[in-house]
Each structure stands twice: as C-alpha cells, then as structure tokens.
Design brief:
This protein is of the alpha+beta class and about 100 residues long. It has helices at about 10-15, 20-35, 60-70, 85-95; strands at about 1-10, 40-45, 50-55, 75-85.
C-alpha cells in the first residue's frame, strides 16, 4: 500500500459549517473504504493548511477519486502528495544509476 499525505483547506462553505466537520470526517472515512483507501490519521493543524490527512491506498487513482469526491461537496480543497517512508526512499536512492 502506498502512503499519501492530503493537505486540506476549508472553503468558505466548509468553515461556515465547521461544527459539521466531525460528521463529515466520519462520512469521509466510510467513503474512503468504498474506494479502497484507508485513512490512517486526521489532524487539525495550524499554519498554512487546516487539516492533514494520512492515508494508504493501493494506487494513486484510489486517493484521487477520494479527493475529487470530497472536494466536490464544496467544503474543502485538497492537495495530495505521495509519501515514501525512510526505508523505502533510502532503497530508491540506493538503486539510482
């Protein structure tokens, strides 16, 4: 399973309805399961982004479908990055020509 970091920012609509965020988070976890994505952690953050989500999925397609489905509800905007744990990225670097 590949690891993904999803940086999430609330839209104007999302922040106006912030009290519904816990309910939306639970619904997102259920949606993720149906798309083959496991949400590992969800953090409320300070700084540049509002929420940080850590997820695992077999393919980038799975996480992209989740991000599109969640964003289409109008409460958030997402920015997704593939993440490699240290053991994996050191192996990648060791295999460079």
């Amino acid at each position: 399973m590949a690891t993904f970091i999803v940086r999430i920012d609330w839209t104007d609509q999302g922040i106006r309805n912030v009290k519904e965020a816990p309910k939306r988070s639970r619904a997102a976890r259920e949606l993720a399961k149906t798309l083959g994505v496991e949400i590992k952690e969800v953090y409320l953050t300070s700084g540049e982004h509002d929420i940080l989500l850590l997820a695992e999925a077999p393919l980038g397609d799975n996480i992209t479908k989740l991000a599109l489905a969640l964003s289409s509800q109008g409460n958030i905007r997402t920015c997704t990055s593939r993440a490699w744990p240290e053991a994996e990225w050191t192996k990648l670097i060791a295999e460079l020509p």
